[in-house]
């Protein structure tokens, strides 16, 4: 069975912003999760926009003390909108992930184009302690199947296919106008972490929801992806009894 990671935002974005990640670490451990995903955008930052080193160290120790391992999710992109490597954002996120003690650090792709240098990216990522993954986003830029196919083709051609893996967000493909199953069939060899959520609503009113137990489309996507990689719960838990809802979904997703 796959290890289950609980994404902090599943407990509510406003709640995590107000109370802090540390409040939800013991709860994630108590419901059977193996990992806890820290969201950089939900961490307090100083006037200079940086996250406190002491706060990251303390949070990392708390996660470890509860028998969990950490994912560090950053909104930083590997490439800027014009296709250039975002070296400053990459290096800053890698330092923060190392300070936290994260097993995985998750980036957004950004404006990658097929002629971008895989070797230059590899040089920036070299020596990172956390496994570096890139996630499909909700926008056309950074969320298209063609971009990810081109990225992994470029890495393979340069002999660097082990340098970078993928976080496959099932729901985000729908925001970007892509078919999740088609993407899963094309990108499965590169997937090392799965963000699990379904999508309700239309257009700008789309929002993340828990997959239904009888959702054949969601089940087909999971079946097309590696069964032995961690699965992250990113959909919101029931606010009335989040612990019970979290436990139910952890048990279900382990065996799905």
**Uncertain residue segments:** none
- The name of the CATH architecture is Alpha-Beta Barrel
On the 0 to 100 scale, the average pLDDT is 95
**CATH structural class:** Alpha Beta
Structure classification = alpha/beta
Helix content: 25-40%
Q: Give, in spatial order, the strands making up the sheet with the most strands.
A: 1-2-3-4-5-6-7-10
* CATH H-level homologous superfamily name: Divalent-metal-dependent TIM barrel enzymes
Task: Throw out a few tags for this protein.
single chain; alpha/beta; TIM Barrel; eight-stranded parallel β-barrel; 10 helices; 10 strands; globular
Write a concise synopsis of the structure shown.
With 256 residues, the chain is α/β, with parallel strands linked by helices. The protein is 38% helix and 20% strand. The protein contains 10 helices and 10 strands.
List the helices and strands and how they pair.
Layout (H helix, E strand, L loop, with lengths): L3 E4 L5 H7 L5 H6 L4 E5 L13 H13 L3 E11 L7 H14 L3 E7 L7 H8 L5 E5 L9 H13 L7 E5 L2 H4 L4 H8 L3 E6 L1 E3 L6 E3 L6 H9 L6 E3 L8 H14 L1
Helix pairs in contact: 8-9
